[in-house]
Design a protein that fits this description.
The structure is a homotrimer of 504-residue chains. With 504 residues, chain A is mainly α. In chain A, 45% of the residues lie in helices and 9% in strands. Chain A has 23 helices and eleven strands. Chains in contact: A-B, A-C, B-C.
Chain lengths: 504, 504, 504
């Protein structure tokens, strides 16, 4: 639906200078030109930006903040950018060469649609560097370049058809992959050509970008950089408030494979957040425990710069979230120490598979944190806990969590031993038989157990997410049910085989 | 628990005139009389109403709003109603003849308990008309008068008993139906008699209304009208704020059969709503994108009158929600174009069944939107998207959504082909065998796939609800699992039959 | 992570007296000493407390409230406690002898870590007494001392290993129990020794308390008292606002075994709460229906002191929640009248088992509310309903709810009859065979039906939680599916047995 807006153009031209006056910082000429049309065509984008800190302050002013309050970490922001608000052009016209075919001529400017972490790095260099070492930045290749994960994705996303009574699984099409796994992991953007669109401003040519739209955490951008800051710093307000609230993390961490939000919202921490958040300050930098908030959100424990009421640092800001984590407790068959490198494609277990454990639960030690490194990460995390809890509370909590890691791994070992027996006996066809190990009924029963139930139990343990949740909401009840059901299936198969053998 | 309140009566009589003074509009004598007792007996109802716009303004004042701000769409509101606040009597004493046996004498007035859309029409005629063409208004008959849906309801709600080892399913009793399907679809109200109740004001006679209480969207009212405005415009504040917030829709759109709220709350849109809603204006009419809110709620995309910051209309208000929808993606075996008529009982597929598709997935074209009509509806919806997103973003989104419609329909075809084979081979008894097609184990596996999993995938696609949700939360993982499990079951049944045959 | 804070000590010493001046009440010397260190070590705890009513008012001032506004129910609060704010020492240094080995010498004071209901009783005697009669206070023994529940816990929490192809279930370890069932039910605290910790203030000795941390509702405290007020009155603000919001109850009432929060949030009541709570007064005592809130939360119906706008009592405050409940609809095989005693370990059904019903659904009448007592409890609950709903509405609602109790019990009877036949035929091993009745595949199918699905249906009925939720979200669809699936399993087992018999 396109409106005739020739008159509106004039109105906006008259209004913008008025807005620019007063307390708001000056806009660049280029940004003013953008706003003249886009305020009408995309009022939501412009209004979102107008409410942002980017519109309210220049980098030069931001640089005047002292000490821990400093939000802009780059030392060498170009002079011309420092003096104007961070508007449309300051980001979308930045580094046109770097964005290659993504850059197009638009009303006299070289513009690119997809702003990347390397654009944001202009002002936020430390955060961009940290994030590049975060496993999330590598989420695309970590999924796409792992042969075992490929098989899981293939089994989940591929359409099934019947051919002479047999199920055939087609390779998943790209649109499905983009909407499914790559929604969170990120797509690989690629310009495949150009197209002419009939706009209110006449015919204009735009690049056609495969993989767009996407805001996945490991998006491969047209400038070669990895990630999308707007995955968490939601465009176009890029609000620290939104990033610090747990609903942001929920976008990707809500399903039974990674139920962080569900467990949080059932925890004491989540209860306090839900009940009291209206009285908290989500914008303060640094973030003062007790004063600005009285219970942690996801960001508190995993990312934010925290201080006590004396402005002493409790935890440094990090966008490399592994720094506060010792165990990786979801997404794989067994919980295991965090990988050393954010590039997990390099990992090989003792059987040569790109997995951090072998099927018996042994760790691929060489690629994972050592116990000493784990202890250091745990201590970093605990510094935050200790701001509100006594030592005995914190130690008791972690003692239970580590016990749960051990216990759930043991239960999964029992399940996996049965799965391996099924493969060996020919009741199902797994990797050793050259088959996809995730595409038969019994294999899904097995993957339910580690992909969903053991995860849920561990998340509830890690986040003190409540006994009820960890027991009954896809938790311990269902984990042990999986073991019981898989065992019953195996016994029945053996009985049938014995019956057949007896007949022959 | 009944209190003695004879003294309170006097107090209220003294207080009400005081309240009436000042800025609040005059109350009718009848409403004043209602309030004298009911403020004490039902303080929650009265307090809710006191906070409403109905209590704060007369229709005459409301009619002075100009242009898009006008909330009262009727041209011929009776003079006497225009001059007083919209109080108890203005609605509950309206059109006493129309409400038939539902109208009863009460302290000298002809009162009816259940206010209907035809009562609301007195001031809100356009909305009442639109809603009467909304499929929701027809939700009662669309369920109750469809023989196939009847069988699904029967299978889900009917109590099962064992008779000589066989399961017998009783027809569901009315109280269960009212509490289950008809809670949302609406009950058919019917006055079955009268009863005398001992009240604080002495013995009084009231009608006994079967099907009450109910606020279902397709309630059959005692005046013959269909629907319940209070399903969304929650009594007794009838707040536009509440109707515009997604929690209202959640009342009926939350289970795995229609997981709109769950998908929304896991989406970027839902994240922004959850994080920023405290700063939005949910009462503004018209509703300005970017200024009043920065991310859509359910109402934004499906109902509300939207304008840009120049007060240019982005989308007209509609209470006939189909106008912005091209596909119906839930509740039936296959996704299909929206039906043309809100009365879906008239639909017949090629096999003569009252279903919008046949079992092979073919559309009952005659009763469904044509591709051209679908395109027009999509364009209407996209006008809203484009307020915050560029063309390439919006087109990319819809390309993926339409691909997902196609892919999920293809997967369900594979499942349905297996189900049909099972019926043909006598492994289960379906429609062709004169049996309920939803009451055997394997039939429920089949209905799980289309009633829950394919739906979830489509909702996640339609609403950009997140990869994690659409993959793992009753989504693609479980959809393909259904196919795998149903195939394994079919193979096992065939093997057993072959074994039996070999023995004979 | 421990900081050097010798300088900070001095700063705090200077600041605290300043805070004490002005409108805040005087602090005891002991509390001032606590704060000197703990404001730095645990800023979150101190900040939480500073925002509490305990920090803002002395008991003497609190006692000046009149009538229904009085929050402090004890008649004999010690003089010295009355004159100072309720700070650290007022609770943690209270009754040192009573806490036995939990009390330790700390900087010259006798301190205990775990504050108990008998500490809180000092000011809140009536509430402590009520709570001691609440079934929640007995949640530890009610679980741990019931031989049947033990078997359920054992089956859910015990790790399984394979021994010669057979599954063996180990007894669950204590850390797992504490994190799982006892998280909500409460742990039994016990001092097992002492340990020396190296703190900023030098080496200090602390007791080692098994079962810590825990805030379960039936925690067995070191002074022998039962429960943890902070389960709901979250430390260290102990806010009535938090306790009245439904997120508190969600901590333990969210899983499919007791889905109160989920059902609430899908109900009309939950919708209104979610949409309008920002305008309500969650701190007012008494709590005025309509004025302070316009829809109930959990606390409204189950706990709070409610008045109408004339300050007439609608319902008295109770911490013995059974007083407003007639049926116990979750956690056990059949819904049944509430037990008379909060100690449910004394219950014996006709077969001598510690269950409130027998397997045929008959009630253990002697231990349960009589129909007359049930009617009285229902009437108490309905007094709250009637504040916002007419009599016909309320009666209609309860008629459906009671019908649903009957219908779900009937469906569970059919399922249990099949389960008992399976035990009798030797297809599974139950109590009569000296086996755990919850540890085989088919037994879990059976427990799914009553532990999850029948519950969900009843909660949706009790709380008007929506047709969609009660039908499709682990509700009636899944309940009847359980019956169908269990019947199919039983038929298959019989067929196999017949086949085997035919071969012999």
């Amino acid at each position: 639906m396109i409106y005739r807006r020739s008159l509106s153009f004039v109105v906006v031209l008259l209004i913008w200078p008025a807005i620019v006056c007063g307390e708001t910082p000056p806009l660049s000429d280029a940004t003013q030109e953008c706003l003249e049309c886009h305020a009408i065509f995309h009022p939501g984008i412009v209004a979102g930006w107008e409410k942002s800190r980017h519109a309210a302050i220049t980098p030069a002013e931001a640089l005047q903040a002292e000490g821990l309050a400093l939000k802009v970490s780059s030392k060498n922001i170009p002079e011309d950018l420092q003096k104007v608000a961070v508007g449309c052009a300051e980001c979308h016209n930045l580094r046109p060469e770097a964005h290659g075919a993504g850059t197009f001529e638009h009303n006299g400017y070289d513009v690119h649609t997809v702003v990347s972490p390397d654009d944001c790095r202009t002002c936020h260099a430390v955060e961009a560097d940290q994030y590049s070492r975060n496993v999330m930045a590598h989420a695309y290749a970590n999924l796409v370049d792992n042969t075992v994960y490929n098989q899981l994705e293939h089994s989940i996303l591929g359409n099934r058809t019947l051919e002479k009574g047999q199920l055939k699984t087609a390779a998943p099409d790209m649109a499905t992959r983009e909407e499914a796994c790559l929604y969170c992991h990120g797509t690989a953007l690629k310009v495949s050509g150009t197209e002419v669109r009939d706009t209110d401003a006449g015919e204009l040519e735009f690049p056609v970008t495969e993989g767009w739209p996407n805001q996945g955490v490991g998006r491969i951008n047209l400038d070669g950089s990895k990630g999308s800051c707007s995955a968490c710093h939601t465009r176009h307000s890029f609000s620290i408030e939104v990033a610090r609230k747990p609903h942001t993390c929920k976008e990707c961490h809500v399903g039974p494979d990674v139920p962080a939000f569900k467990v949080y919202s059932a925890s004491k921490h989540g209860n306090i957040y839900s009940s009291k958040k209206q009285e908290w300050d989500f914008k303060a930098v640094p973030w003062t425990v007790g004063e600005d908030f009285t219970a942690p959100t996801c960001a508190t424990c995993h990312v934010s710069l925290l201080v006590n009421t004396d402005e002493e640092v409790i935890n440094e800001r990090t966008h490399e979230m592994k720094n506060r984590l010792s165990w990786r407790s979801f997404g794989l068959i067994y919980a295991h120490p965090q990988p050393k490198s954010p590039d997990t494609t390099i990992i090989r277990n003792k059987d040569g598979l790109p997995l951090p454990t072998d099927l018996e639960g042994g760790f691929a030690d060489k690629y994972l944190l050592s116990p000493e490194e784990q202890a250091a990460h745990t201590q970093t995390m605990q510094a935050t806990c200790l701001a509100c809890h006594g030592t005995s509370w914190v130690e008791g909590h972690f003692r239970r969590y580590h016990n749960t890691i051990k216990r759930t791994n043991a239960e999964i070992l029992t399940l996996t031993d049965m799965m391996r027996e099924a493969w060996q006996l020919g009741f199902a066809r797994g990797l050793d038989q050259g088959a996809n190990p995730f595409d038969e009924s019994v294999e899904r029963q097995w993957s339910d157990a580690w992909l969903f139930y053991a995860n849920n139990v561990r998340f509830a343990a890690a986040m003190a997410g409540g006994g009820d949740y960890g027991v009954f909401a896809d938790g311990r009840y269902h984990l042990t049910q999986s073991t019981i059901d898989l065992h019953a299936w195996l016994e029945r198969k053996k009985a049938v085989e014995a019956l057949k053998a007896g007949k022959q």
